[in-house]
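Weekly modeling sync, notes
Attendees: AB, CL, MP (scribe)

Item 1: holo prediction request
CL wants a bound-state model with zinc ion before deciding which constructs to order. AB pointed out that an apo prediction alone won't tell us much about the pocket. Agreed to run with the ligand included and paste results into these notes for async review.

Input as submitted:
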Amino acid sequence: MSRIRGKDTSIEVMVRRYLFSRGLRFRKNDKRYPGHPDVVLPRWHTIVFVNGCFWHMHDDCPKGVRNPKSNVEFWSAKLLRNRERDRMQRAQLEADGWHVITVWECELTKTAREERLARLYEQIVGQSADAAAGPADDAAGDSGMAVSDDVKSNGVTPVRAASAGPMPSETSPGNVVVPNTTTPPDTSR
Ligand SMILES: [Zn+2]
């Protein structure tokens, strides 16, 4: 499997360089998550896979359907397994609250890459309204306020924990609930 992921291929490096140049910070090939995603952006609750079209059987893509001339059955079975595994890993990550984006090799050709990478950036930072209800990964510890778990699971984030993006109140004012009216005693002595 390490042939497929875990090694920096040039398309992965290209994507990482771009995201870094746009000021995003991330972990790479994080082994804590299914599929060891190429790019993990905890702040944006987003995971990016950079997939080779052949190895991951890109649908409707010439590179994704061409089989090697020899050992056709062996390769077909292997690639089908790859694809099934990709699907399960993605479902698992999404169930855990991650926004999962796949960038395909064929989207990174010389002529296409500029547009694709710009769109990728927008895909990452443009969904921050949803991000407030994302994985608890970096939401914990951010706030000194005691918020019960059932409040969190409603997607309501304390105002003080909204450091991951625009304030929730900008998009959905009716959704903001202040857990209690007693403010933390930061002026206590
Ligand atoms: Zn493709």
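Recorded for review: Residues 53, 58, 61, 63-64, 104-106 surround zinc ion (CB under 6 Å).
Action items: CL to compare against the apo run; MP to circulate these notes.
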